[in-house]
Amino acid sequence: MAQVNATLPSSERNSTRTLATCAAVIAALYFGSEILVPIALAILLGFVLAPSVRKLQKLGLGRIPPVVVTVMIAVVFLGALGALITTQLRDLANDVPRYERTIVRKIQYLQGMSTGGSMQRIEDAIATISKAVNRQPEAQVVNGSGSSAAAIQQTTGERPAAAPMPVEVIAPTPSAIDTILRVSAPLVHPIATAGIVLIFVVFILLQREDLRNRAIRLFGATDLQRTTAAIDDGAKRLSRYLLTQCAVNTASGIIVGISLWLIGVPSPILLGIIFACMRFIPYVGPVIGSILPLVLASAVDPGWSMVIWTGAMLLAVESVIGQVVEPFAYGHNTGLSPIAIIIAATFWTVLWGPVGLFLSTPLTVCLVVLGRHVEQLEFLDVLLGDRPPLAPSETFYQRLLANDPIEASDQAQKCLSEMSVSEYYDAVALPGLLLAQGDVAQNRLDHDRQEQIKAAALDVVEDLERDAPGDDQPDDRQKFWSTGKPTEATDADVATKPDDLVPETPPQFTKAGSVLCVGARGPLDDAAAAMLVQVFLGHQIGARCESYTALSKTEIDHLNVEGVALICLSALDGSSPAFLRFVLRRLRRRAPKAHILVGAWWRIGGLRDTDEEIDQVVKDPKVTTFVDAIRYCLSQPPEGVVVAVDPIETAATLPAVVPALS
């Protein structure tokens, strides 16, 4: 085995070691449940009671008295709750015979509804066929071998053997000690477990600081900051979640109990307690907790009105609590995804049975917190956490790679509920295109794949244009295109006003085609240029775009620069200062009167080693984001720009520009 492991690559050996470790941990959890379940219960109860202990200690009561008082109050409360449940169960057991006749009548009624129907005819046909198949010839009463007793006597002349005499074993009357042992045997294990949990809770509350320090020493003494953050985050998250869950479930149980009492269902206190306890089980708990109230309502009422009222009440209570109260109260306290809650419930139930079902969510929260702060366990946060597995920019790029602009557009619509189009492009789309540009630099994307990504990006741009509010909705339109408040200066050191952006576009840029956006080097630059044109048009800036191929040596002389006041060069790659200088030289020679603005989109991902050289050889203004480009145009235009004032019509929208890049 050692020789085999030595021949495996390090990554495979690490994967094998990880799988072996996970298998060993799961086996230990399964076979050590008798010990680990009480410890887990004690730890969770410690998280619930710790806030009360800390508050009592702040009152100057010392260290031990607050723990004793808190534990005693918890024990008394649980004991009173158990006594109340026992009393309610006894009363319900005494009343069950009274409901037997109602239940029988309803069952007969339901059976009568099917009489003469399709199901009844099918049952009758099956019964007739069964009788025909199992029919035997008529004969005399036979013995076990199939021959009659009279025939045996006539044939052999012998009397048949007498039937065996039945024997009944009567157990001796149990003594009082035997009765006590038989009754108390099922209670020994729960009482012993409760005692162990109580002892653990007391020691956890008394030694919680010492246990925390030992955990830090064990898991991360070399990184105190991260380990302390992990422990504090897990403790606060679990305490807040458990206390909130207890409060919400208690309130729901009280509401259900009072409602059942008003409806007239018997034992409303017991039913409310059961409903509250069942809500600790994710998803299926409320359904299980609703069965008994519906059964009792059906047993009490000869009609169906009580069942209907009970079902409507339970549905209303669970809908309000599950859809309104819990999202507001819990927020993101658990940090678990919905699928993780289901997986956790299944996993812990298989390991520890019903107790594991109750403990599944808190225990999984602990694993997710560890995954967020321990690098080796990061996969737990990825698999179980509620944070998106991919950043928005990564999702955008991944959808373009998969040639799925529809899902990319759906993602954009979700983002636009919190930000404008300009901010979306700066925060999501441009970083996504930069990821694609990084793959191009490493020769991972050929030209055809780049064209595919460009086409998908143009589809997203067109979808956003179709969803843009019209001029008849000025407030919504301004919010849709807004670039926010300008900063004191842009990367191009262009002065801006301290208040909101000027609502009116300077007349120098309102003429159709007065601003030309052109890609610098490849299809991805064209995609960024199309996005910039869309944002320009949204701010009433007359912009159009051209493909990067128009800057080639054979096409530069055919580039249409008539009426162009500003050329914005869209560049995602800043690794070659010489190339940028060469392209800008061609543009200046082709349009000597136009000003040039360099869209240095690569700087969104951070400065590069070549940026200092680019700043030395490229003296034209440079902007890093679309917001900065808009601010540049909405500020006073550069001196010397003279363009005839001819405001563009509102019909000049992006779909008329995109075909130039397609």
Description:
It is built from 25 helices and five strands. It folds into three domains: 32-87 and 192-206, no CATH class; 225-384; 397-660, no CATH class. It is elongated, with a radius of gyration of 39 Å. It has 662 residues and is mainly alpha-helical. Strands 2-1-3-4-5 form a five-stranded parallel β-sheet, sandwiched between helices. 64% of the residues lie in helices and 3% in strands. The chain has helices at 2-7, 10-31, 33-58, 64-95, 100-113, 118-134, 149-156, 176-206, 208-220, 224-263, 268-278, 284-300, 305-330, 338-352, 354-373, 378-384, 392-401, 405-416, 421-441, 447-467, 474-481, 523-538, 577-590, 611-617, 626-634, and strands at residues 515-519, 543-546, 566-571, 595-600, 622-623.
Please give a quick description of this structure.
With 662 residues, the protein is mainly alpha-helical.
- Radius of gyration from CA coordinates: 39 Å
Helix percent reads 55-70%
Order of helices and strands: HHHHHHHHHHHHHHHHHHHHHEHEEHEHEH
**Fraction of residues in β-strands:** under 5%
Could you name the ranges where pLDDT drops below 50 across 5 or more consecutive residues? Answer: 1-6, 138-146, 484-503, 636-660
Straight-line distance between termini: 59 Å
The total of beta strands comes to: 5
Mean pLDDT, rounded to whole units? 75
Q: Which structural category fits the helices and strands?
A: mainly alpha
| Neighbour order of strands in the largest sheet | 2-1-3-4-5
How many structural domains can be distinguished in the coordinates?
3
Q: What spatial form do the alpha-carbon principal axes imply?
A: elongated
Summarize the biggest pleated sheet. Answer: 5 strands, parallel
